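Changelog entry

Holo records now carry the ligand SMILES as an explicit input line rather than a separate metadata file. Below, a converted record for pyridoxal-5'-phosphate, shown in the new format.
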Amino acid sequence: MRMPVSHGIARNVLDLIGHQPLVALGKIGRGLPFKLYGKTEFLNPGGSVKDRIGPLMIERAEEEGWLKPGGTIIEATSGNTGVGLAMIAAVKGYRLIVVMPDKMSTEKIRLLRAYGARVVITPTAVPPESPLSNYSVARRLANEIPLSYYPNQYENAMNPEAHYRTTAPEIFEALGTDVHAIVIASGTGGTVSGIGRYFHEKSPSTRIVAVDPKGSVLAHYHRTHELSKAVPYKVEGIGEDMIPKTFQFEYVTDFVTVDDRESFQMARRIAREEGLFVGGSSGSAVAGALQWADAHRPPDDANIVVILPDSGDRYLSKFYSDEWMRENGFIDETARVADILAVKDFQPALLSAPSTTTVRAALELLRKKNLSQMPVIDGAEVKGSIAEDTLMREVIRDASMQDRTIQQLLDPPFPVLRRSASLPELMAALKEATAVLVQDEGQAGFVGLLTRYDLLTFLSIEGGESG
Ligand SMILES: Cc1ncc(COP(=O)(O)O)c(C=O)c1O
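Structure line, unchanged by the conversion:
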């Protein structure tokens, strides 16, 4: 496995694999009671977490004599494992044939060819047992081509082992046992199984959350132990149409399902808001983490780690293109307030303060919840709103204000819109007010609050031009 880089000099590209740091997802995590970190696997030299499995699979094959000098490596992959193997093939002088389903991006095909690999494309829409599937074609080529070796990441124990030996200890080194949950979008299950086994041994209370794309069979299998029929989806690298032998379901605490639209919109947000240029499965993983946290309510200040598996550069012609997003129906031009509320990923119950709250307590609440404003509601009656800005200005003017109630310092109430209100209506309201309260049709209570920030976030992920 990877040797430490000595005196700042790596022996070759393989020494550069791994040791990718965690990064706080400060914007996406804004206002959340827990801490959200991304593990920056897209920074690996081949651009993905799958760089980690190649060296171990190939070293094992060399030791066992399955792969000899001058041999050919043949692998079925969604592309990223192929890139990892292509780096090894380049360094060690093997030939490489990559067998890839036709749904994968042209960037990935070009990337593999740039590394000198031969790429064979197979149809996506065939069952795994079909002779045309990428698994069957890889197996047939391995039988036909002399001196060839088929690592088969779907069955190779070195795939989860690589994550057990490298990815997991790196997370443990950063946070020890203080990791509430690790969220992992899964394909072969190598990442989730290796990390799951390690934390099962070292920190059994850490939840291991697998994220499955809608249409894949994995989440359903985890729940029922029955194989469902796969339905095609667009996100690449995760989900399966069969159950890989490498997937160790016993280490998975929970599964969540995320659809293409949520995955792509979240990946675009991560790029625009965090400056981290990630692929679609990173979007699935972060959206899945927020969905899981919404249902399971982690304790305040809990650490949640999300694996960010690959880089966005291989999806420029796909979900990073506004045109592609529109053609595929992932951008909704007729959005309503309800849709905008729905993409606010983590939705705490609407927070409000009664008018009897002291200024001190109100400021403390705003600070703790990371909010700049809040409606003031007594029973069912909206009294007004408070803004951190106004309260602080008054306290600086007269410190004794802290112990008064917020009653005298109220700003005007936020306007109220129905869930069915249109995007232009919301935009008009937010030109005047900093937030709006949302009400269900024909009901008195409030179901949420939309701020200017929420609107801008929605517009940027919905494909508005950005500068
Ligand atoms: C982009 C991307 N994300 C996630 C994964 C899933 O990783 P694993 O196969 O370890 O489950 C892959 C696997 O190829 C991938 O390419």
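Spot-checked after migration. The first helix runs from residue 53 to 64. The longest strand covers residues 95-101.
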